[in-house]
Amino acid sequence: MKATQHPATGVQVTPADLLRMAALYLRRHGWHQGTYYNALFPAGFLTPPACAAGAIGIASAGHKVEHFSQLDPDTLADYLAAMAAFVDYLDNFAPVFHIDEDGYLLDEHTSPYSWNDDPTRTAEQVITALESAADEWDRLHTQEGGNR
């Protein structure tokens, strides 16, 4: 871009965009379980392997986010919308139910954290779920290339 050009304004980043960016981040930098980011990398390392939520945080903020409370209000709204779209997808297509010893359902929604951290989970499953959640969000919220 030349110095005389002005960047486009008014471009709306959707939850689907953030989910796809998170999937791309995991493809490029690696997937992790247990914490947002792999602690084996130095604190200043900008692109450590991440869990699904950590990758969504990076996609939203453009940098590592240790906790969503660190985000400014607009970025937080984008992060929460992307996480909600991911949870909706998991609820519909990959539900994880936690039942207590009395047979009662403990969680109404699938936790993206416990889903990501399932010992049988693979990186490809997480990346595919992020991409599929983005496709599902688009299917529900866009019509002929535009927002509904």
TrEMBL record:
InterPro entries documented for this protein: DUF6197
Pfam families: DUF6197
Lineage top rank: taxon: Bacteria
Protein name per UniProt: SUKH-3 immunity protein
Protein species of origin: Micromonospora maritima
Top-level taxonomy: Bacteria, Bacillati, Actinomycetota, Actinomycetes, Micromonosporales
